[in-house]
Each structure stands twice: as structure tokens, then as C-alpha cells.
């Protein structure tokens, strides 16, 4: 499936965006995890674009999108998504994000629900990690720059994938490591600082959009328990557990894509029935 990659001018900067699927199809925007780029969604695009106008973008600080001086906040990252929709003249879309991207989805579900039909929050949590750990990582990256990014890329597989997947699919693992190694140190550190300060647990009850929560049974970063805690607070939510670690869309792409497609197409069907 070919995708049009462009530098999209928005009210909040110029973002690297890739679009696939029919222009008249319902919009689905995909948000990458910390340390990856829009290419992380390559395994999903072909299947999703049969049903949706699929819009991928590099999160602020990543890939070809703006690397503004940090620290960032999730309000900024969420408003970036809204600005991309505005620039493409899209009133409403569905949203799916992994890890940091999933946390962005939670923010959007709380603060910009009128722009979305449904959200999928994958391998994420309302509070990811500890403020101290994220601040320490941000400091390390700012101190050592590219060398720190190389070190993070070297150690990333054990946080992102199961041991069996690392052994069986070295090419996928290496591609993910390469994405991380080439992320701007300032952009990465600034997103770490956003994760350090963001805690949406007390606000989850405000999310009324249909919400899919995808959890990896082997995820050491954002656990199944995290997903269950979110489900308890979000009234219209459901959990799908996948046999994977943190980047489940790369480790079990077929199962991930099927879960996402099933959920998103059912929401569109339900909406059409309500309209009719």
C-alpha cells in the first residue's frame, strides 16, 4: 500500500505526515510511541487503508516533525493532533496510539472529545513510569546526546519485545532500534519530561468516547493491570489482551490489526445505525 508522505503545514508547525486510503473514507490517525516514527505503523497500513483514510504522523520531537525546545507537555502533543486534523480539514477522526501515543489519546479523550469518534489506547497507561525515572533519562540524554540515544537503542529490545520475538524476528527489532537511534536527543528528552509530569488517572472518568484498551500480556512497561485500571474508570471501554510485550503492533501485527479493525469498524457501524 503506497502512502503519500508530506511535510504538512499546520497552525502548530510543520509535521511529517503519511496518508493512505481513499480521501472520502473515515479518518483514522495513528500516533507513535516514544523513540519511534510513523514507520512503526508499516505492518498495519495496508489492512487499515482498505477501510479508513489512514493518517500517520511523527510526534513532536521525533522524525521529521518539529523539534522545539522542551520540556513538552501532553497538552502540546494533543493539540498537535488537533492541528493536523484542522490542516487536513477533518472534523472528526478515530485515533489509535501506542505507549506515549496512547497517552496522547487519553488526553484527547478528556480534552478534545468532540473531534473523535473513538480512541484506541495501546500498551499505555494513565500514568506511565515514575517522574524520577523519566527526569533522570531526560537528563542523561541531554548530557550525552547522540551517544545516549545509541545506548538506549541498544537496550530497547528487552523493554519492547519478548525474548522469543527478539530471537525470531531480528530484522523487525533492528528496524525499531534504528528509529530510536536517530531520534533527536532534545526531542526525546522533552517527551520524557512530558511523561514525567503527566498523570491522567483522576480524569479518566471524563472519557465517554468508545475506547479500546490493548494490553500486552508480557509488557513490563505498561501492564495488563494498568489497562484494567483504565477500564474501571472509562465507562465505554473494552480490553483486548495480546500475547506480546510493549510494542504489540510490531510483535503480533496480525492480531493487533484485527483487534483494532474490529473495534473501529464496529464503532462506525454503530454510529451509522444511530444516524439512520
Summarize the structure.
This protein has 276 residues and is an alpha/beta fold.
SSE arrangement:
Elements lengths: L3 E7 L2 E8 L6 E5 L10 H7 L4 E5 L16 H14 L5 E6 L1 H12 L4 E7 L8 H14 L1 H15 L2 H6 L1 H12 L3 H13 L13 E6 L7 H10 L3 E6 L5 H4 L1 H23 L1
Parallel strand pairs: 3-4, 3-5, 5-6, 6-7, 7-8
Antiparallel strand pairs: 1-2, 2-4
Task: Note down, in words, how this protein is organized.
- The protein has 11 helices and 8 strands.
- It is of the alpha/beta class and 276 residues long.
- It has a single domain (4-126, 201-275), classed as Rossmann fold (3-Layer(aba) Sandwich), CATH 3.40.50.1820.
- Strands 1-2-4-3-5-6-7-8 form an 8-stranded mixed β-sheet, sandwiched between helices.
Helix content: 40-55%
Please count the beta strands (DSSP E, at least 2 residues each): 8
Order of helices and strands: EEEHEHEHEHHHHHEHEHH
Largest sheet: 8 strands, mixed
What is the radius of gyration computed over CA atoms, rounded to a whole number of angstroms?
Answer: 17 Å
Strand order of the largest sheet: 1-2-4-3-5-6-7-8
Would you identify the regions where 5 or more consecutive residues have pLDDT less than 50? 272-276
How many domains, in number, for the residues?
1
Whole-Å distance between the termini?
A: 32 Å
CATH fold-level topology: Rossmann fold
User: What count of helical segments does DSSP give?
Assistant: 11
Give the name of the CATH architecture. 3-Layer(aba) Sandwich
Q: Roughly what is the average pLDDT, rounded to an integer? A: 96
**CATH hierarchy class name:** Alpha Beta
Superfamily (CATH H level) name: Alpha/Beta hydrolase fold, catalytic domain
The chain-level structural class is: alpha/beta
Amino acid at each position: 500500500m503506497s502512502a503519500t508522505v508530506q511535510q504538512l503545514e499546520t497552525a502548530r508547525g510543520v509535521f511529517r505526515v503519511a496518508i493512505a486510503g481513499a480521501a472520502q473514507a473515515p479518518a483514522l490517525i495513528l500516533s507513535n510511541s516514544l523513540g519511534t516514527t510513523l514507520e512503526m505503523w508499516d505492518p498495519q497500513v495496508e489492512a487499515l487503508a482498505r477501510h479508513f483514510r489512514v493518517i500517520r504522523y511523527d510526534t513532536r520531537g521525533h522524525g521529521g516533525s518539529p523539534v522545539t525546545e522542551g520540556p513538552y507537555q501532553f497538552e502540546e502533543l494533543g493539540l498537535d493532533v488537533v492541528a493536523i486534523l484542522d490542516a487536513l480539514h477533518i472534523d472528526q477522526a478515530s485515533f489509535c496510539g501506542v505507549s506515549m501515543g496512547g497517552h496522547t489519546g487519553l488526553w484527547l479523550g478528556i480534552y478534545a472529545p468532540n473531534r473523535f469518534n473513538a480512541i484506541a489506547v495501546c500498551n499505555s497507561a494513565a500514568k506511565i513510569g515514575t517522574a524520577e525515572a523519566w527526569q533522570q533519562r531526560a537528563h542523561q540524554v541531554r548530557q550525552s546526546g547522540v551517544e545516549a540515544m545509541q545506548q538506549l537503542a541498544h537496550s530497547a529490545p528487552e523493554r519492547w519485545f519478548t525474548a522469543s520475538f527478539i530471537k525470531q524476528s531480528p530484522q523487525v527489532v533492528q528496524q525499531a532500534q534504528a528509529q530510536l537511534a536517530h531520534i533527536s536527543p532534545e526531542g526525546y528528552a522533552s517527551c520524557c519530561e512530558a511523561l514525567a509530569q503527566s498523570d491522567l488517572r483522576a480524569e479518566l472518568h471524563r472519557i465517554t468516547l468508545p475506547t479500546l484498551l490493548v494490553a500486552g500480556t508480557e509488557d513490563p512497561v505498561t501492564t495488563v493491570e494498568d489497562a484494567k485500571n483504565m477500564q474501571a474508570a472509562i465507562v465505554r471501554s473494552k480490553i483486548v489482551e495480546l500475547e506480546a510485550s510493549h510494542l504489540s503492533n510490531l510483535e503480533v501485527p496480525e492480531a493487533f490489526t484485527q483487534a483494532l479493525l474490529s473495534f473501529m469498524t464496529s464503532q462506525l457501524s454503530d454510529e451509522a445505525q444511530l444516524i439512520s
